[in-house]
Write a structure and sequence with these properties.
The protein has 368 residues and is an alpha/beta fold. 45% of the residues lie in helices and 15% in strands. It is built from 14 helices and twelve strands.
């Protein structure tokens, strides 16, 4: 049996190391900081470092922050998600932050409600982060928290989220990506196009509205009167990967397939919805792409390795994350203004695979 829990010993300090090796606290501090201004023998430096290691000494970050006026921390705020593009975005941002000499303070919110957002912002303020990247769609009630952060002199950059007043934004060129995908399908001869998008909250519809606007402009230019946008509700009770990612695309497609006049091509909100659409077609024994075309968005692994590989738009996720970090660190260094409404976009890439029927339709055109 285990004995009674032992009392935890206090964290070792530089003073404790100094007493252990018989040196002053100032000397110990200089050596642990790696100072080269004062000359200490190799033996003295080794004694201090070995003593610190034996005591499991860790620098007091709070004290360092107060002394230097800098924490060396960058906050990264995002919401919990299974979506590959968002996970990759966070990973690439973390790598870029560390390559720029900072440490990541990751703040992942299960849901972006007022309580969670308030706690996250308070935590980052208390840690005295030097800058924050928002990679989340923020609701209207977030404004007071953002103003507190900006009032504290902490610069903000948004990465693929909605616009924040006074903060530059980095993101995909959503309009051009949507245009490119829509024109590709029209070029293959499709006329009855249906775009399936989430029935979103007003605060998060910014990205979808840009894609919808571009789609509607292109189909209007091509005079496609039967093209349309349909909105699929997402259940707030979705508690699994299947329900939150794949099922909306499946449900929407089943409804479209039940029509007497089906669409010829369905442009899904993302690759996961497109996978749900493929499942619906399989259930109804509708062949893709022979009878209907399906496209996704974001170029995920699951879409590439689907039984019918997905035509989609690939985001330059790594470049977007690197651009956001580079911009934020330049603001921290004073090279760029802290308050800015600039928007920087990078182009998406059209990835043509099986689900749009490009190879099939090209062969038919050549044959005719």
């Amino acid at each position: 049996m285990r004995g009674p829990p032992q009392e935890c010993s206090p964290l070792p300090t530089q003073q404790a190391i100094a007493e252990m090796v018989g040196l002053s606290q100032v000397t110990v501090s200089d050596i642990l900081k790696g100072s080269v201004k004062k000359k200490y023998s190799k033996a003295t430096r080794r004694r201090v470092i070995e003593a610190a290691a034996s005591l499991n000494y860790r620098p007091n970050r709070a004290a360092q922050t107060i002394r230097k006026g800098k924490s060396g921390l960058i906050g990264f705020i995002h919401t919990s998600t299974f979506m590959q593009v968002a996970v990759e975005r966070a990973s690439y941002a973390s790598q870029a932050i560390q390559k720029n000499g900072y440490q990541l303070m990751n703040s992942e919110m299960v849901c972006c409600d007022e309580v969670n957002l308030g706690k996250v912002c308070d935590t980052l303020l208390d840690a005295r982060v030097e800058g924050i990247i928002f990679a989340a769609n923020l609701p209207q009630y977030a404004q007071p928290y953002l103003e507190r952060i900006q009032a504290a002199g902490i610069p903000i950059v948004t990465l693929s989220g909605n616009r924040i007043y006074g903060a530059p934004k980095i993101g995909l060129d959503l309009k051009e990506s949507s245009r490119r995908l829509t024109r590709h399908l029209i070029g293959l001869g499709y006329r009855r196009l249906t775009m399936v998008m989430p029935e979103s909250r007003p605060e998060s519809i910014h990205g979808f509205s840009e894609r919808i606007q571009a789609f509607e402009e292109v189909v209007a230019e091509a005079d496609l009167s039967e093209a349309e946008v349909v909105y699929q509700p997402i259940s707030s009770k979705a508690d699994s990967l299947k329900d939150s990612l794949f099922e909306p695309g499946r449900v929407a497609t089943l409804q479209l397939l039940s029509r007497s006049k089906r669409p010829e091509a369905i442009l899904c909100s993302n690759d996961y919805w497109a996978m749900g659409a493929l499942r619906a077609c399989a259930e109804k024994k509708v062949c893709v792409p022979q009878e209907i075309a399906i496209t996704g968005f974001d170029d995920t692994d699951v879409g590439e390795y689907a039984p019918v590989s997905l035509t989609t738009i690939a985001q330059p996720t790594e470049k977007l994350a690197q651009k956001a970090v580079a911009l934020l660190t330049s603001i921290i260094r004073g090279e760029k203004p802290r308050i800015s409404d600039e928007v920087f976009t990078l182009p998406g890439r059209l990835v043509v695979r099986e689900s749009c029927g490009a190879a099939l339709r090209t062969n038919m055109m050549n044959f005719n």
